[in-house]
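Give me C-alpha cells for this 173-residue protein.
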Amino acid sequence: MLLASAYHARLDIPEQIARAGAQGIRQADVLGEDDRLVTVLRERLTEIGVSPLDEDLGVLVVAIGSSNLAANARTAKVASRLAAGTRWAGAATAFATRPEASVARAADQLRRRGARRLVIAPWFLAPGFITDGVSTFARDNGIRMASPLGAHPLVAETVLDRYDEALAANAAA
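Here you go.
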C-alpha cells in the first residue's frame, strides 16, 4: 500500500517483482489522492477538535515527499481539497523529506496568510520513523497533530478497490 506514485511504486516494487521471476503477479495502483482518503484525513482532524469554521487555523498537510516532482504535485492537491468548504486561514502541503517544501516553510507560509494557530494533518497511512520526526517538530513548536490515516473503513475500501482493479487488469491481459 502506497499513497504516491513515486520511487517505490514506479521502480522499487516492479524491480522486485521482475527479480523474483514470478509469473502472474500484477502490482496494484497506489491509493493516491482518493476522495475517501481525504475524508479520512478530515475525520482525523475532527478527532482532535478541529472545526471547519475556525478562521484562525492553518492546516499543514504533511506527506513524505519524493524526488519525483509529479508525485509531489499530485500530493500537493490534497491540501486544497481538504480545505474546500472550510473557513480556515489556509491549508498547505509540506514534505517531511524535502527541504525546499519543509514543514517549517509551510508553517511560515500559513502564518503569513493569517493563521494564528496551526495543526498538522499527516498524509501517511501509519505511524513510523518519518511521522515520529514530524511529531517531534509539532511538539517542539506547539502544534497539534492528528493521527495518520490508519485503520479506517474508507482506507480498507480504497485498498480493496485497487485490488479489484488489479485483478480485472490481470484477467483482461
